[in-house]
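Re: that chain you flagged

S.,

Sorry for the slow reply, it's been a week of failed gels. I finally had a moment to sit down with the sequence you sent. For the record, here it is as I used it:
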Amino acid sequence: MLTKRENYNDLYLFMIVVQEGSFTAAAKRLGLAQSGISRSIRELEKRLGLQLLVRTTRKLSLTQAGGQFYQKVLSGFDALNDGLTSLAYYRNTPSGTVRINASQHVIDKVLLPKLAVFQQLYPDIRLELINESRFVDIISERFDAGVRLGPEINDGMVAVRIYPDMEMAIVGTPDHFRRYGFPQIPADLVAHPCIAYQLGDGSLYSWELYQDGEKITHRPEGKWVFADSYLEAKAARFGLGLAYVPEELVADDIEKGVLIRVLQRFSLKLEASYIYYPNRNISPALRAVIDALKI
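Prediction finished late last night. Pasting the structure tokens below so you have them in one place:
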């Protein structure tokens, strides 16, 4: 049994000698010394305990064992070449599965609209868009990339901007405001039941607002808690309290009068969303995804 890695060089030399029909021709093809090739073949035969070639002054010929061995060596190197060719295909052609972790909001408003054309442009790419509000370790959980707001991305990750800054909106139903009145300043929110958003660590998000150039917070007090902005907006439509959600989630409701926006001048503008991944040496498939998403 061949156990040393360098022995595969001898197998290659043996294959070329057989293909060329002489040590001289093999040496010329490989740019090596004839004596060195001859010595390598003798050492190969010695390790195998078999004579592979019959040497005469006029030509080389294969022994029966050498002929069988040559076919095995030839098929082995052919398989290796096929493997290298397939690797080149994957290196140059976008294909395979791309797994991305993102919030439902990002999937709905950013990823799906921009990646909908992928099936036509890149039929060999399979996209897995996994909806999770919690923060995940994309490496340990085997994601190719994640999407988060700029400040939430860990150091060491490569990040590419894919969506502009996003404005938050405090909204409620007309019936809610008839009952509780319209808040004029953030401090008035204490008189209103507010729908809470649960972060991935189980804590509740304190609403962040701006007043007189400074960031202030309001801790929502109410009976309803959700871990998804879409459900917060839906709960607000049911009149369960005020919700503080991305404005684009409720823009249609505001336009139709289903929800009313308040305290707009105090609302926070969230930083842009980024797709992030561990390093710059990425697959062609992920590169195609990033190129389609970046702004």
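What I noticed first: Residues 94 and 287 are 8 Å apart (CA to CA).

Talk soon,
D.
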